[in-house]
From TrEMBL, chain A:
Protein name, UniProt field: Protein brunelleschi
Chain ranges of the Trs120/TRAPPC9 TPR region domain: 492-625
UniProt keyword list: Golgi apparatus
Cell location: Golgi apparatus
Pfam families cross-referenced by the UniProt entry: Ig_TRAPPC9-Trs120_1st, Ig_TRAPPC9-Trs120_3rd, Ig_TRAPPC9-Trs120_4th, TPR_TRAPPC9-Trs120, TRAPPC9-Trs120
Trs120/TRAPPC9 third Ig-like domain span: 1047-1160
Lineage: Eukaryota, Metazoa, Ecdysozoa, Arthropoda, Hexapoda
Disulfide bond in keyword set: no
Positions of the UniProt region annotated as Disordered: 161-192, 395-432
Family to which this protein belongs: Belongs to the NIBP family.
Organism name: Pseudolycoriella hygida
Trs120/TRAPPC9 first Ig-like domain residues: 660-773
Chief location category: Golgi
Automatic annotation (TrEMBL), chain B:
Example GO BP: endoplasmic reticulum to Golgi vesicle-mediated transport
Signal peptide (UniProt feature, chain positions): 1-15
Location within or outside the cell: Cytoplasm, Perinuclear region
Keyword entries, A-Z: ER-Golgi transport, Signal, Transport
Protein name per UniProt: Trafficking protein particle complex subunit 2-like protein
PANTHER family: TRAFFICKING PROTEIN PARTICLE COMPLEX SUBUNIT 2
Annotated GO CC locations: perinuclear region of cytoplasm
Entry's family note: Belongs to the TRAPP small subunits family. Sedlin subfamily.
Highest rank taxon of the organism: Eukaryota
InterPro entries, alphabetized: Longin-like_dom_sf, Sedlin
């Protein structure tokens, strides 16, 4: 009831509430003496800070009281204390400011006076509560006198100072508390010096008369050795006054104490009867509580506990909620001081740290992990304690959650707790609160406070104190509940105070590892800073707080980290980032705004809706218009570094490919390593090493780039934005050798992938790493590194070898270019083309000009010819001088050389016309033709062709007699088309030489120079020749006839002019014939017979097995080849096209010859001399005689062959030719022979002659023929060309005939 | 989704959230779209308490089989309750402080509606 009345009353009263909450308060501060430390006058903060730190180290003094008991007196130093808070000094005595320390610096008497004045005015300000004060005055500038007096001293002292300061710096909490008795035992000499100087200062400067405080003078760099002792002395003085107050209170008669009020209560009791029993009890209760406070401050903790308990009883009985709450709080404080003594040490250290006011204080706080570690530690040690000491009161045994710092302290020496534990008696007074009870009591206190609107600050502070104790107890949930409660308390606070409250909450939440909560509080604080109700919005603070709340949202300032983690709530992260951008904009930090916006787009892209993506992209564009974003870290004023944010996925790179150089610029090794190619395309056996099977390292590029050559990288980019995206200044990011990247600008359409190529030139040679590319889009410069591009299979970088510069050549030819390039393989080497049209057999010239287009001298050049045809044929078509080319080296930069290439219209001039022009070729052979044309491009299928040749031959040779007969029938030629192509090895473009044929040839150059040449690199390029062969003169049929002279024969040819012009054909020396276009003519060409030596030569050449294998292995081929070559050497059909300059030669290369022809062509091994009636008979001549007369035939045979002939049989036989294919050998009734018609010759040596004679008598007139032949029956005959006839006879006989047979006309 | 409908129609919950094992949001629905962000902040910070309550070994006394986490924390305007499945999927309900819903009712709501794992889109 009472409380509700007071609540109602307090509602209406004027505001006397405490307006400045002290969020830093801790439970043990209840037992501390409050001292204000204040810098006065104009002093540097750093200087003051240093002094303050020195002062505040003395926060604990042990004093022997009058009864000899040691009092542990603690001091709480504050730098600011609102006077109004003193008003609550009756309610809780620790809120009273008891001492004042001022620190000032002066240079002159005037300044000194001012300092003294300020000190005095401060004293006045806190006069109600102040017990004592000290003033520390530092003399800043040395006066002349002191320089004269103690110059040396000062320098000495400076040295000493350093050492002394460092020793002070290293002092830890153990020697923080300087006991009063060890104050004056060391450094007495130095001290005397100090005193001397200080005395001098004292003498020089005098404090004004109204200055009633004790002042200490120091030089600026004074080590201030007596500082600590003077502070201790000061605390002594405070203690004694406080002790006297306490004693005073204890001596008061408990019945007569006056009522103590909380500030807002005074009005409540106006007009109330104070003499009631109830009120007396209230007076007693409150006085007891007050005494308990004093007792606690004076270091008598257990006594205070008893007093608190008493006051609780009293106050509870009368329902004085406010004071009951205070009593509960006191109880908690006293208990926690006993249970957790180390909190004092810990916080005193922490306070020191926080005094530096660094903005990173939050990051200094122990993180969640630390807490967990601590918790684990505490649990462990808690168990140990339980096991060790059964004597411990049930309080500690029941507390599974013992204090963190107490446990820590128990391991460290010298703590009061451990001291007490050693004693067998109970370490704590029996009335101490159990650890679990402390939060409960705090809760009671808070509930009691909450009944009073004006006690809001007290309530808040109590909640925070409770939370801090719970942190000690590791009861995080309790902490959360207490902290949450803080927010409920409805306080009429200014915005900065609200902010401060949130910051305090943040800190505490962070201490228990509630980072989300902490960051939420930070966000609230940030909002408060810039809330509309805030008259003085502080965007900088707001910005800072938001930045600090990043970890709680699982954010980092580094986008790569955020993308890797992918944690947190995107929705909140986006909101936070947007607010942050807003704050940065308000601050005018456009660079930061751009950076954060870039960060937002980069990290949160996938969490944004397409519309948001668009909006944000546009926002970024407008932000970056003020300040362009670039990939450099930004450093905030407080030293925080904001790492660069790159828009790696805007545009989104789908494809990244390092391109090889164009084929003709690619470097090749001059010496090609032998590739181990087995007979199998695939082999499971890996010869070289096992790492062939190892996953391929796709970051290493297989090909090389060349120094100073423009290189390319192909990108495929996607613009995910719904509007056109302009990406400018795209360059490659490289590492390693110097690389000059060419900027590229593209405008990317929406959602369609666009391919672009980035170019650059390596300036040096060596290893080049391509890491990605840089862009400039939406006003932001980004370095898009491959390793930052997730979800794509990019290696972190590509490594390319750059080889030294290679020369470049430009090729020109004297021939016109073609529209189409070569269809051959490797046509990408071709850099220039040339086309030429020539007639078969014509010769043309081409000049190739090579120009060195680079700055590297070409020292090496190598040319080669590539086509689909055989290299032999190739070499017949193209001819050039390699020596000429090599002699022109080197080619200096920008110089050129040229050389000539002769092109000959090589063709197979033999054979029928496929298109019917002069279709002389009989159908019999066209089949073979078709057969031979089948393997068009791969002509050298010797096997098939030789087979066809053999097929054709027997058909002609089946009857030797027949041949003999047909030789007279000149209407039909014995030429064959089937076999020749195997010899000619030509098959260009299908249908022989009678149609237009095309041929693609690449003239390749490999060239090199400079350093790259030394390293064995070269380049390859090619000229593509497109040859067109027009048909010219074609030999469709041919035959061989005996000539008038035995050493010669006639080659009769059917020559067709396939050109469109009239052709003049020169077929033998000074014999010309004009052939009309598309007309055929028959020309006889006298040819020398093929000498036997040539045959011999040919035979030995082909005697090695490989050649004979190729040639079909038969001797007939050998002979035919020899004869064919002989003919083609001897016969050159020169032609000129009338009306043009065009001339050419039709070659009979590869002419195929039947065995009969061969007989005529070759010089026979036997030389025949025929005599009739002792007169030699010329060939082709006719012998005339009359019937009945005897004619004497004489035959001389001479062996012309190099080896002897053996077992010869010379035969002479007469027959009649009926000219209808019937030969009549049965002439017994018509011819009579005298003498043997055959003789046997055992052996005929070289150049020996055998003669035979016989006589014939013709009985009837008519036309007769004499068949004279010689046959050899030996197997061992070494005659080389026996193959021509051995098929005809049953055995191995060789037959040589005298050709032509002798005609004998017998007349009547 | 049935759950949401039942809660929103009876005006009991202002927001429900389903949160995955790794504390990433799977589903969040708020009654008032305007307040969704604010509520998300609250739900997000409630996860600290969830983590605390589920931290292994810290609270052996608490029945670990009890999947209902109870009141996570309350603000002036809202009360936040949690429920966790065996697979560490969390269900968070935000209830208006002024609503007359009692804790027992929330608990039963949790148990009745959440025990069979709802289908997560």
């Amino acid at each position: 009831m009472r409380s509700s009345v007071s609540y109602m009353l307090s509602h209406s009263t004027v505001d006397t509430i405490m307006s400045k909450p002290d969020y830093e308060q801790n439970a043990h501060h209840h037992g501390s003496v409050l001292v204000l430390v204040r810098g006065i006058g104009p002093s540097k903060p750093r200087f003051l800070q240093k002094v303050f730190e020195r002062l505040q180290k003395v926060n604990n003094v042990k004093i022997n009281d009058s009864s000899g008991q040691v009092r542990d007196i603690w001091v709480r130093f504050v730098q600011d204390h609102p006077v109004e808070n003193n008003d609550w000094g009756d309610f809780q005595t620790h809120r009273r400011l008891l001492g004042l320390l001022t620190v000032g610096k002066f240079e002159s008497q005037v300044e000194l006076n001012e300092l003294c004045r300020v000190h005095e005015s401060l004293k006045v300000k806190y006069t109600d509560t102040l017990f004592d004060s000290r003033c520390f005055l530092f003399f800043g500038k040395r006066s002349k006198k002191s320089v004269d007096a103690g110059n040396n001293l000062i320098t000495e002292m400076n040295d000493i100072e350093h050492s002394s300061l460092s020793s002070h710096g290293s002092s830890n909490k153990e020697n923080n508390s300087i006991s009063s008795d060890n104050s004056t035992n060391d450094g007495s000499d130095r001290r005397s010096l100090d005193h001397e100087i200080n005395k001098k200062l004292d003498e020089e400067f005098t404090t004004p008369s109204n200055f009633k405080s004790q002042a200490f003078f120091y030089l600026d760099n004074d080590p201030c050795d007596n500082l600590e002792s003077s502070i201790a002395e000061f605390i002594h003085s405070l203690f004694w006054i406080l002790e006297s107050k306490r004693l005073e209170r204890t001596r008061e008669k408990i019945e007569k104490v006056s009522l103590l009020y909380a500030p807002f209560e005074k009005k409540d009791f106006v007009g109330l009867d104070l003499d009631t029993r109830n009120n007396r009890k209230r007076c007693m209760g409150r006085a007891t509580k007050n005494l308990a406070d004093l007792t606690l401050q004076c270091g008598l903790v257990s006594e205070s506990l008893t007093l608190y308990h008493t006051s609780c009883e009293t106050l509870r009985a009368i329902g004085d909620s406010l004071w009951l709450g205070a009593a509960y709080e006191g109880l908690c404080s006293a208990s926690s001081i006993l249970l957790y003594p180390n909190v004092r040490y810990a916080t005193s250290l922490q306070r020191n740290a926080s005094l530096q006011g660094s903005p990173q204080k939050i990051t200094d706080r122990p993180l969640n992990q630390d807490n967990i570690a601590k918790a684990a530690l505490s649990k462990k040690s808690g168990l140990v304690i339980q096991l060790e000491s059964d004597t411990l009161v049930k309080s500690s045994s029941s507390s599974s959650t013992s204090s963190v710092s107490s446990i820590l302290s128990s391991s460290s020496s010298g703590s009061t707790l451990s001291d007490k534990k050693d004693t067998p008696t109970s370490p704590y007074p029996p009335n101490v609160l159990l650890p679990d009870d402390i939060p409960l009591k705090y809760r009671d206190a808070i509930i009691n406070y909450s009944k009073y609107r004006h006690a809001g600050i007290i309530e808040t502070e109590a909640a925070l104190k409770a939370a801090r104790i719970c942190i000690e107890q590791n009861q995080n949930l309790e902490v959360a509940i207490f902290l949450q409660n803080v927010l409920y308390i409805n306080l009429n606070m200014s915005e900065p105070e609200r902010v401060q409250r949130f910051e305090t909450l943040t800190e505490l939440y962070q201490r228990i590892g509630y980072h989300r909560k902490a960051s939420f509080c930070q966000r609230l604080a940030a909002w408060r800073h810039v809330a509309q109700s805030n008259t003085n919005p502080d965007w900088a603070q707001s910005y800072q707080l938001m930045l600090e709340s990043f970890p709680g949202h699982h954010l980092s300032t580094d986008p790569i980290e955020v993308l890797d983690q992918a944690a947190g709530w995107p929705c909140l992260q986006i909101d936070l980032l947007q607010q942050l951008i807003g704050a940065a904009r308000r601050l005018g930090q456009s660079a930061l705004a751009t950076r954060h916006m870039t960060f937002l787009l980069q990290t949160m892209w996938k969490h944004l809706t397409p519309n948001e993506q668009r909006e944000m992209a546009l926002q970024l564009q407008s932000l970056s218009a003020q300040c362009e974003g670039s990939p450099v870290p930004l450093v905030l004023d407080n030293g925080t570094v904001i790492p660069p944010a790159n828009l790696t996925d805007l545009p989104y790179c789908i494809h990244f490919q390092v391109q090889n150089l164009p084929s003709h610029l690619q470097p090749h090794k001059i010496a090609v390593n032998k590739v181990d190619c087995g007979p199998f395309l695939f082999t499971p056996i890996h010869f070289s090493s096992i790492d062939r099977r190892v996953k391929k390292n796709d970051s290493k590029i297989a090909f090389q780039w060349v120094q100073n050559d423009l290189c390319e990288i192909l990108l495929k980019l996607l613009n995910p934005l719904p509007f056109e995206l302009r990406v400018s200044d795209m360059r490659l990011l490289t590492n390693g050798v110097v690389f000059e990247s060419l900027p590229e600008t593209v405008v990317l359409p929406t959602t369609t992938p666009t391919s672009i190529t980035l170019h650059g030139t390596p300036i040096e040679h060596g290893s080049l790493e391509v890491q990605g590319y840089s862009t400039h889009t939406l006003g932001v410069k980004s370095n898009c590194r491959l390793k930052a591009m997730s979800n794509r299979k990019f290696p972190p970088n590509y490594t390319i070898d750059v080889i030294p510069a290679l020369p470049k050549i430009v090729i020109a030819t004297s021939l016109p270019q073609t529209a189409t390039f070569s269809s051959l393989a490797n046509s990408d080497y071709v850099i220039v083309s040339a086309s030429v049209t020539i007639f078969n057999g014509e010769t043309s010239e081409c000049t190739i000009t090579l120009t060195n287009n680079s700055n590297v001298t070409i020292e090496f050049i190598e040319e080669s010819l590539h086509s689909t045809v055989d290299s032999k044929l190739q070499s017949r078509i193209f001819q050039w001088s390699r020596e000429e080319l090599q002699s022109k080296l080197p080619i200096l930069p920008q110089r050129s050389i040229d050389f000539k290439v002769t092109i000959y219209g090589e063709a197979d001039f033999l054979g029928p016309l496929s298109n019917g022009i002069g279709a002389v070729g009989s159908s019999e052979f066209s089949n073979h033709n078709a057969g031979s044309h089948l393997p068009e491009f791969h002509s050298l299928s010797v096997g098939t062709l030789s087979v066809s040749g053999q097929n054709s031959l027997p058909s002609r040779m089946s009857s030797p007699v027949n041949i003999q007969r047909r030789s007279e029938l000149t209407s039909s030629f014995r030429s064959t088309h089937s076999g020749h192509s195997s010899l000619a090895t030509i098959s260009l473009g299908g249908a022989g030489s009678s149609t237009t044929r095309h041929m693609d040839v690449q003239f390749r150059f490999r060239y090199s120079g400079g350093e790259a040449f030394k390293e064995g690199y070269c380049r390859m390029c090619a000229v593509s020749f497109n040859l067109e062969f027009l048909p010219s003169a074609q030999v469709t049929n041919w035959d061989v006839l005996p000539a008038e002279i035995p050493s010669q024969f006639y080659l009769v040819l059917d020559v067709v002019n396939l050109t469109a012009q009239e052709m003049s054909l020169n077929y033998t020396t000074n014999k010309n014939i004009l052939v009309e276009s598309k007309e055929s003519c028959r020309v006889p060409v006298p040819v020398e017979r093929c000498p036997l030596e040539r045959l011999l030569q040919e035979n030995t050449q082909t005697s090695d097995p490989q050649n004979s294998l190729l040639s079909g292995g038969t001797d007939v081929d050998v002979t035919e080849r020899a004869c064919s070559e002989h003919i083609s050497d001897q016969v050159n059909l020169k032609w000129t096209l009338t009306g043009t300059e065009t001339c050419g030669v039709t070659s009979l290369r590869g002419i195929s010859l039947s065995p009969t022809m061969l007989g005529l062509i070759t010089v026979a091994p036997l030389q025949w001399d025929i005599f009739v009636d002792d007169h030699p008979v010329p060939p082709q001549s006719e012998v005339k005689c009359s019937a009945g007369t005897s004619i004497k035939f004489g035959v001389n045979i001479c062996n012309l062959s190099p080896s002897p002939l053996e077992n010869l049989t010379l035969t002479m036989q007469f027959y009649q030719d009926y000219q209808n294919g019937v030969l009549n050998y049965k002439l017994e009734t018509r011819v009579l022979l005298s003498g043997p018609d055959r003789i046997s010759i055992e052996s005929l040596n070289r150049n020996t002659t055998v003669s035979h004679e016989c006589a014939a008598l013709f009985l009837t007139p008519g036309r007769y023929k004499a068949d004279i032949q010689c046959c050899s029956r030996t197997n061992q005959s070494t005659v080389f060309w026996h193959g021509a006839t051995n098929k005809l006879s049953d055995s191995d006989a060789q037959v040589w005939k005298y050709i032509p047979s002798i005609d004998i006309t017998v007349m009547e | 989704m049935l759950l949401l409908v039942s809660f929103t129609t009876t005006r009991m919950a202002v927001c429900i959230a389903i949160i995955a094992k790794d504390n990433s949001p799977q589903y969040i629905a708020a009654l008032d779209f305007e307040k969704e962000l604010e509520l998300q902040y609250r739900v997000h910070s409630a996860l600290d308490v969830v983590d605390e309550k589920c931290a292994p070994g810290l609270k052996p006394s608490q029945d670990s089989r009890d999947l209902y986490l109870g009141l996570l924390y309350s603000t002036e305007s809202h009360k936040i309750y949690g429920y966790i499945t065996n697979t560490k999927i969390k269900f968070i309900i935000v209830i208006d402080s002024n609503s007359l819903l009692r804790e027992n009712e929330v608990r039963s709501a949790n148990l009745n509606h959440m025990s069979p794992e709802p289908e997560i889109k």
